[in-house]
């Protein structure tokens, strides 16, 4: 049966009015729940302070771990990029022999690229590296001929697997072309150093994650207890609410709002504490060749998403622990 | 308005029934007094009516709502149709008189403007004009009970359950409360009153239902207290 939208009797508009009224009631209820939650928060200020403090420490640990993980990751990647190995060639090696060596090397899956450095280039590089050192420059200028050997500079994708190249580098073909007085040399940071840094990074990361989990559990327990005590303190009020017909969400809502508030305030405090320290201290870490720029740059450029992320983590901890407390202790 | 058909309630297993095949019919707009010694089953009966407890067997229909088909989530809506007053008032100590009464409206999402319209009328009805801003601890027992009654009736329930409302009051204040309940009853609300007060039962000359050992032992149209 078709009925005009605003037909006689106005049943449709009455219905929409009812819907609007229902929405407005829900909205008013939501605001009241938030209001009650805020009241609860300020009423037991001691418990609230303790809960917020523990949550702040938790979020600081989580935040610091995340930042440290990024910085270590960037540093190790950068160190790996820097590593290369040089093979010094005899002066007698012909261009054909050299090209054959280069193409052999390039066939190795580990090898990222190979660069030929001629004797002249090698001399220039030496001059460039020592341009402050007048003694050496003077010595260079009086030299007759060019004592610097030509070399192949090899970069690999994973420096920890450098020994995979040993077989090739020790083959007769390579032995014949290499300058017997100079062993293949690794420049940049050595494999051992990279391994060591890698182990420290992994250890730090694991410690951070374990500390983070412990801190999250502790703050959840404390919030759980805080909400439990809040429920206990207000059991009369809860009973009255029940008996005069408040529904579940109206009774439970304020406790969840309260716990969420702990998370939000703690997140803001953690950000306020961590941000200045991280931005100011990044420079002194950079002195030790630690790559902080991408991480600190991100923190500097996107403060809002970072803070929102922290707030969400804090709120999630609050909501989960209060829901647990309510489920266990709030009979409706 | 209230219909109980062979209602039995047993707490736990093999225990003696708190209510044993109780059948009752209360008409709209009646004023009914429920008497009985402690442990007779009065409290159980009231808890069944407010759906705090469910019957072990039997049928309960209140205001057209069949409790068998009542879903858990609709219980709050049912309770909004039944006003309840307690012996110990159960007011919220941190809230003023006005706020305590408004609380019953707040839970159903009424706007502040609606509250400001409705609450003063009820305050006038129960005779507490001028006390709106006082806190429960500043009130006498009689006044506190009137606040509780105001809170129970502010949503215009069809039924008002008063569970020993005069239990903590001296005789003069008790009578004030009873007169107030009669007034509310005249305005069209069914009132169910439980009391131990012999004087009130005998002088009111209303329907009296006596419960003993979980059974209705007498139901008189113009009853008196049976010792």
Automatic annotation (TrEMBL), chain A:
Membrane topology: Multi-pass membrane protein
Main localization (coarse): membrane
Keywords, alphabetical: Cell cycle, Cell division, Cell membrane, Membrane, Transmembrane, Transmembrane helix
Keyword flag Repeat: no
Membrane-traversing stretches: 46-68, 209-232, 253-275, 304-326
Domain FtsX extracellular: 83-165
Single GO BP term: cell division
Domain ABC3 transporter permease C-terminal: 209-331
Pfam families registered for this protein in UniProt: FtsX (PF02687), FtsX_ECD (PF18075)
Localisation per UniProt entry: Cell membrane
UniProt GO cellular component terms: plasma membrane
Keyword Metal-binding part of the UniProt annotation: no
Protein family (similarity comment): Belongs to the ABC-4 integral membrane protein family. FtsX subfamily.
Protein name, per record: Cell division protein FtsX
Species of the source: Candidatus Chaera renei
From TrEMBL, chain B:
Membrane topology classification: Peripheral membrane protein
The keyword Methyltransferase is annotated on this UniProt entry: no
Keyword ATP-binding: yes
Domain of life (superkingdom): Bacteria
GO cellular component, one term: plasma membrane
One Gene Ontology biological process: cell division
Localization of this protein: Cell membrane
Keywords: ATP-binding, Cell cycle, Cell division, Cell membrane, Membrane, Nucleotide-binding
Main localization (coarse): membrane
Coiled-coil region: none
Residue ranges occupied by any ABC transporter domain in the UniProt entry: 2-225
Transmembrane segments: none
One annotated GO molecular function: ATP binding
Family designation: Belongs to the ABC transporter superfamily.
Oligomeric form and interacting partners: Homodimer. Forms a membrane-associated complex with FtsX.
Protein's job: Part of the ABC transporter FtsEX involved in cellular division.
Protein name listed in UniProt: Cell division ATP-binding protein FtsE
Gene: ftsE
């Amino acid at each position: 049966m078709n009925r005009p939208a605003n037909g006689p009797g106005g049943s449709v508009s009455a219905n929409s009015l009812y819907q609007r009224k229902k929405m407005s009631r829900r909205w008013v209820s939501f605001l009241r729940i938030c209001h009650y939650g805020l009241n609860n928060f300020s009423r037991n200020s001691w418990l609230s302070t303790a809960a917020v403090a523990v949550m702040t420490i938790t979020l600081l640990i989580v935040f610091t771990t995340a930042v440290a993980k990024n910085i270590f990751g960037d540093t190790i990647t950068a160190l790996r990029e820097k590593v290369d190995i040089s093979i010094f060639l005899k002066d007698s090696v012909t261009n054909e022999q050299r090209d054959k060596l280069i193409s052999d090397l390039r066939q190795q899956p580990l090898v990222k690229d190979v660069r030929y450095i001629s004797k002249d280039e090698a001399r220039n590089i030496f001059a460039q590296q020592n341009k402050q050192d007048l003694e050496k420059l003077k010595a260079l200028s009086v030299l007759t001929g060019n004592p610097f050997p030509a070399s192949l500079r090899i970069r690999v994708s994973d420096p920890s697997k450098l020994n995979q190249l040993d077989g090739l580098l020790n083959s007769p073909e390579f032995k014949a072309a290499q300058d017997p007085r100079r062993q293949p040399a690794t420049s940049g940071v050595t494999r051992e150093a990279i391994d060591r840094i890698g182990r420290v990074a992994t250890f730090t990361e694991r410690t951070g994650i374990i500390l983070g989990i412990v801190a999250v559990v502790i703050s959840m327990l404390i919030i759980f207890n805080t909400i439990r005590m809040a429920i206990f303190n207000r059991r009369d009020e809860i009973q009255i609410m029940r008996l005069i017909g408040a529904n579940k969400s109206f009774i439970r809502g304020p406790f969840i709002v309260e716990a969420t508030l702990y998370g939000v305030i703690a997140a803001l405090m953690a950000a306020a504490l961590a941000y200045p320290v991280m931005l100011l201290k990044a420079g002194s870490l950079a002195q030790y060749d630690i790559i902080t720029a991408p991480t600190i740059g991100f923190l500097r450029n996107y403060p809002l998403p970072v803070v929102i992320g922290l707030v969400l983590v804090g709120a999630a901890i609050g909501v989960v622990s209060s829901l647990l407390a309510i489920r266990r202790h709030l009979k409706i | 308005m209230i219909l109980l058909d062979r209602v039995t309630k047993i707490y736990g297993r093999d225990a003696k029934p708190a209510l044993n095949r109780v059948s009752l019919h209360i008409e709209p707009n009646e004023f009914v007094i429920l008497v009985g010694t402690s442990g007779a089953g009065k409290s159980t009966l009231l808890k069944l009516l407010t759906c705090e407890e469910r019957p072990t067997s039997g049928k309960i229909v209140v205001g057209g709502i069949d409790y068998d088909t009542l879903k858990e989530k609709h219980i709050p809506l049912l309770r909004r149709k039944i006003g309840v007053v307690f012996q110990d008032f159960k007011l919220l100590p941190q809230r003023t008189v006005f706020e305590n009464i408004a609380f019953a409206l707040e839970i159903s999402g009424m706007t502040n403007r609606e509250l400001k319209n409705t609450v003063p009328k009820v305050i006038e009805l129960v005779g507490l004009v001028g006390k709106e801003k006082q806190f429960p601890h500043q009130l006498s027992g009689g006044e506190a009970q009137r606040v509780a009654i105001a809170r129970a009736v502010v949503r215009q329930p069809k039924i008002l359950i008063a569970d020993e409302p005069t239990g903590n009051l001296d005789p003069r204040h008790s009578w004030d409360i009873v007169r107030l309940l009669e007034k509310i009853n005249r305005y069209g609300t069914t009132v169910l009153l439980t009391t131990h007060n012999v004087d009130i039962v005998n002088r009111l000359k209303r329907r009296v239902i006596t419960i003993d050992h979980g059974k209705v032992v007498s139901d008189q149209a113009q009853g008196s207290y049976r010792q």
